[in-house]
């Protein structure tokens, strides 16, 4: 049985159309305004970059705030310890010792926040891998759709020898 190259091309075309439709549907779900076929992949890549930038920015702000609070808590803890040693009032000493214990607990919680921000690094790595994958997918799609070296059997509208028209047939047609 002879393979039909036109059928293979049609199947390929349908597959590409299905991918484009799926990408378009996904972009619409993500809130896009219906990008055209040429911008679907670029739009996805831009969204991933945006997510990565926002995540990194938020993590940076969180770390900066947590580190500033940690420094303030350490300073207050040291001052409370110094004042506790200078006071003779048992009530003030008890308050300052309680304040030191609370500062120590808060410092531990801030350390947890700082360590939890490691997720941003992991998110960033995953997003960067996705960006590389999307870029490769876009490059491969472009390469498939714009092939500089087409199959010589697909050089014209007729692909089977039995269907080719000779110059004599054309001359006869135009009389």
UniProtKB/TrEMBL annotation:
Coiled coil: none annotated. GO terms for molecular function: catalytic activity. GO terms for biological process: regulation of chemotaxis. Residues 149-175 are annotated as: Disordered. Gene3D superfamilies: Helix hairpin bin. Pfam families: CheZ (PF04344). One of its GO terms (cellular component) is bacterial-type flagellum. InterPro entries: Chemotax_Pase_CheZ. SUPFAM superfamilies: Chemotaxis phosphatase CheZ (SSF75708). This is Chemotaxis protein CheZ. It comes from Sulfuritortus calidifontis.
């Amino acid at each position: 049985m002879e393979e039909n190259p036109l059928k293979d091309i049609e199947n390929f075309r349908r597959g590409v159309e299905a991918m484009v439709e799926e990408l378009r549907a996904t972009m619409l779900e993500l809130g896009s305004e219906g990008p055209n076929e040429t911008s679907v992949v670029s739009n996805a890549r831009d969204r991933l970059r945006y997510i990565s930038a926002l995540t990194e920015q938020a993590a940076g702000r969180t770390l900066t705030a947590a580190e500033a609070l940690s420094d303030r808590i350490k300073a207050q803890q040291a001052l409370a310890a110094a004042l506790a040693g200078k006071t003779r009032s048992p009530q003030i000493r008890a308050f300052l010792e309680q304040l030191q214990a609370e500062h120590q607990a808060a410092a531990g919680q801030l350390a947890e926040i700082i360590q939890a921000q490691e997720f941003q690094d992991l998110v960033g790595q995953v997003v960067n891998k996705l960006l590389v994958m999307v870029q490769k997918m876009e490059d491969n799609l472009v390469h498939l759709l714009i092939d500089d070296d087409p199959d010589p059997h697909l050089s014209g509208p007729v692909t089977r020898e039995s269907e080719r028209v000779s110059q004599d047939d054309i001359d006869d047609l135009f009389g």
